[in-house]
Amino acid sequence: MAQLGGQGQQVLILPEGTNRFLGRDAQRMNILAGKVLAETVRTTLGPKGMDKMLVDSLGDIVVTNDGVTILKEMDIEHPAAKMLVEVAKTQEDEVGDGTTTAVIIAGELLKKAENLLDQDIHPTIVSMGYRQAAGKALEILNSISIDADDRDTLLQVAMTAMTGKGTEKAREPLANLVVDAVKQVEEDGEIDKDSIKIEKKDGAPIDESVLVQGVIIDKERVHPGMPKKVDDAKIALLNSAIEVKETEVDAEIRITDPAQMQAFIEQEENMIRDMVEKITNAGANVLFCQKGIDDLAQHYLAKSGVLAVRRVKKSDMEKLAKATQAKVVTNIEDLSTDDMGEAGIVHEKKISGEDMIFVEGCKDAKAVTLLVRGSTEHVVDEIERAVEDAIGVVAATVEDGKVVAGGGAAEIALAKGLKEYADTISGREQLAVAAFAEALEVVPKTLAENAGLDSIDSLVDLRAAHEDSIYTGLDVFKGKVRDMYQAGVIEPHRVKKQAVQAAAEAAEMILRIDDVIASTGSGKPSPEEMEMAGMGGMGGMPPMM
Prior knowledge:
disordered C terminus, 18 helices, GroEL, 21 strands, disordered N terminus, alpha+beta
């Protein structure tokens, strides 16, 4: 609201009911939201992190300690908190792990910035200092990373990512499956994570999880007369329906004689028979169709001994093409022997009470499937999330070939380097760089707290140990500091790089906001607001519809 001249006339710039927070109020509110969000996921960090149970409005339950899953499932309203959720989502998309780390670093950066703002340091100065610190942190990170992508390193990276995520007892076999899967789909040093399909089924222990050199389709044969098992399979992938097409325009057929009716029906049958013959003439004994298969076509396919599956998802069709080297054909007229894919065996198998089609034994398959098992639905869901994280970190390690020590070692090394760098800077940015260094120490501090250790003692021990070796981290199982490479606690360079970068950028963006204008939607005051303003509900007038 503003006043014009001396007339005392009010001018409404924003609709009534709009909430507005200015200056320090806006900054404090946003910083508080970031801190609260970081505190929420903080207890889940590390091998001894706890789980969260999330219950939605329908009563569905998710039990997890995966940072990004917690933040996605929470119904977050605050705009600044939503920006931190974006940090976690980006971390998940780019690397697959380190989501909790990214969020708690961002939360700690905001907390340290609040202390600087209280000392009357301008938010822009803090942002500039944070930007300088983030750039220097990435330089230090490059200097402390080690080149490695041998199988042992990949196994350790996968096991580190899965530690503390409900996969403890089957960490090693699962890590072997993940490394085999990533190595199988690698092409020219690059990995398409979509080529690794994860199928989850409950009702069996975790260690019964298997890697299939091919694709598992969660469907069944379309006709019971079809073979359940086909050896030396020749596979056709079809992107069109096997049925008589309707005309594009409205058409009317006049039938004056029962014989004409019979001829019409026979003509339809012949068309479907021709379609099936084209499939069998091309040499196919297995058919995956993205669309429908007519009942009559099912009958003819069964008679020809073809195992057919209909309404296969597009993503599964793409994986089948990669695994079997088949071509997806849109027009059945164009189907030829050259379009066929090959697999050692295609068979229908009952898993946990449901029929599934296994396409196995593919030569040089560039798409594979991990069948993940678990005793209950909630257990298998959490194992799937752990396996996805492991695939992400192994893929990042194979692509970059760089790893860093885990257990808080990398963060302590970064903090130490940044504190030394801060001493070389003049001006108030020095305080922001020093605050950034202290904020990074939240990771080893949180690891210690979650393991029931004294966080201050652990930090002091780590700082002292880093004078001798930059690879020293916190072994939360033994409660003491040790060389993380020897302990096999290794993380990809990309996880740390993305976490530091994303956290710094989110904190900078939030700190530069000095005005939050929130519209309530309607622009009209609510009945409660009218009541508070003394308008008392307009004298019993009926509400206007």
